Amino acid sequence: MPVAKMPQAKEYLRRMRERLTDDKVSHCVFTAEYLSSFAPSLGIDHDESVTAGLLHDFCRDLSKEEMLEQARYYRLPLSESQMQKPSLLHGPVSAEVCKQEFGVSEDVYQAIYWHTTGRPGLEMLGQALYVADFAEPTRKFHEAAQAREIVRRKGFDDAVLYVAEMKLAFCRNKEVIDPNTQAFLIWLKTRKQAQNTTPSRP
Ligand SMILES: [Fe+2]
Ligand SMILES: [Fe+2]
User: Any idea which ligand is nearest the CA of 139?
Assistant: First the structure.
């Protein structure tokens, strides 16, 4: 079902255009479209997937100072890496602002909050947004196409593990790594091992 069919989509888009560049609005629309294309197969509600996709970068264009100011206003815990690189806070800050301004559900709040780094135990909508944000079809890097291919051919669990591995590999070239990025990958690997060692039913 197209994004535009979601009842609040028009209002979300109007508000997004007030604060995001055209490129970012386009990225969010493609994230919502892509996410909602595979969400039903994971048992995720269509409107929840569209809301998370559209709003996940709602505060992405705040300046460093504004980001830190908002984080303090919402009393968010600030890690050393977020202090060094305030853009890492755009997920948590977007989640708080969207909860306050649009009354998004707890699942959408959690998905937006953790969409950049993931975290151990992340719910299915959060994992789906994590993959869709990385792999939406206008992403130019070849790993995005690879991730979409894995979603199609091997399944979602393999795709989220692949995306987490690629994100950590990208981070290794940067000066600041959020510890949740690593913790999420370890959690996914442990889950995969547990799935592989679970005896199949006779
Ligand atoms: Fe983001
Ligand atoms: Fe994004």
Answer: 2
Distance CA 13, CA 73 (A): 25
Counting ligands in written order, which one lies closest to the CA of residue 93?
A: 1
Q: Is residue 202 part of a domain?
A: no
Residue 18 Cα distances to 26, 59, 131, angstroms = 13, 11, 26
Output the six-digit token pair for 122: 């992340």
Quote the domain boundaries for residue 82. 3-196
Q: Separation of 56 CA from ligand 1 center, angstroms?
A: 6
CA 16 → CA 70, 124, 168, distances in Å? Answer: 17, 25, 29
Query: Residue 80 domain-assigned?
Result: yes
Burial class (CB in 10 A: 0-12, 13-18, 19+), 19: middle
pLDDT in tens, 46-101: 999 999 999 999 999 999 999 999 999 999 999 888 888 899 999 999 999 999 99
Measured between alpha carbons, how far is 83 from 60 in angstroms, rounded to an integer? 16
Q: Would you say the pTM of this structure is higher than 0.90? A: yes
The rounded distance, in Å, linking the Cα atoms of 160 and 5 is 27
**How many angstroms is it from 46 CA to the middle of ligand 2?**
19
Q: Rounded to the nearest whole angstrom, what is the distance from the C-alpha of residue 39 to the centroid of ligand 2?
A: 17
User: Which residues touch 72 (CB under 8 Å, ≥6 apart)?
Assistant: 78
- How much distance in Å is there from the Cα of 197 to the middle of ligand 1? 34
Domain assignment present for residue 75? The answer is yes
Would you state the structure tokens that stand for residue 93, as one six-digit string? 């800050």
